[in-house]
Design brief:
mainly alpha; single chain; 9 helices; 181 residues
Length: 181
């Protein structure tokens, strides 16, 4: 039985584009730290190409960890979080729930780079929510609430703690509120 966090291939392609947008917004934080490391940018580019139907799912699954490994090249926590956002975006081909991971790490990167971390995180989440069109909203609403399904990134791991969890819960709550309204 597959995890509810996987989503259908069509839904994964839909949310991959949004995840790539989230990650690309903070990518300059990583590129300032590691200007010669193109793995994070390449991961975002692959997520976009996958979302447009230009790349094979199996190949994307095989190389999904490459962008996230770029975090080791970062010299700041914000740069590392930006690379992890790219890694999560490139992982959407494997499991749709990684789209929320991309958004959460992007918000974390913005917060870590700011003088007012919570304000920067909230602004980033507002930007992300403003870019959710109906198909992305519908796909993300098919994901289980954070911490309720252990078979994927929304289980009890890193995304379920601290600022990452707060961000994902905020996005999921906003989606539910929009659906009810």
């Amino acid at each position: 039985m597959s995890s509810r966090q996987a989503l259908s291939d069509a839904d994964r392609r839909t949310v991959a584009l949004w995840a790539a947008d989230c990650a690309e917004r903070v990518l300059p934080l990583f590129e300032r730290d590691a200007p010669d490391d193109d793995r994070a940018r390449a991961g975002i580019d692959r997520a976009r190409a996958y979302g447009r139907g230009e790349l094979d799912t199996a190949e994307q699954i095989r190389i999904r960890f490459v962008a996230g490994r770029a975090a080791h090249s970062a010299s700041t926590p914000a740069g590392a979080a930006a690379a992890r956002a790219a890694g999560q975006a490139s992982g959407v081909a494997h499991m749709g729930a990684h789209a929320l991971g991309a958004a959460a790490y992007a918000a974390r990167a913005a917060a870590l780079a700011a003088h007012d971390p919570e304000h920067a995180r909230a602004e980033e989440v507002a930007w992300q929510l403003a870019r959710l069109d109906a198909p992305v909203q519908d796909a993300l609403l098919r994901l289980p609430p954070l911490g309720t399904d252990s078979a994927g990134p929304l289980g009890t791991g890193l995304l379920a703690t601290g600022m990452l969890a707060m961000t994902i819960r905020e996005i999921q709550t906003a989606l539910l509120t929009a659906r009810a309204g």
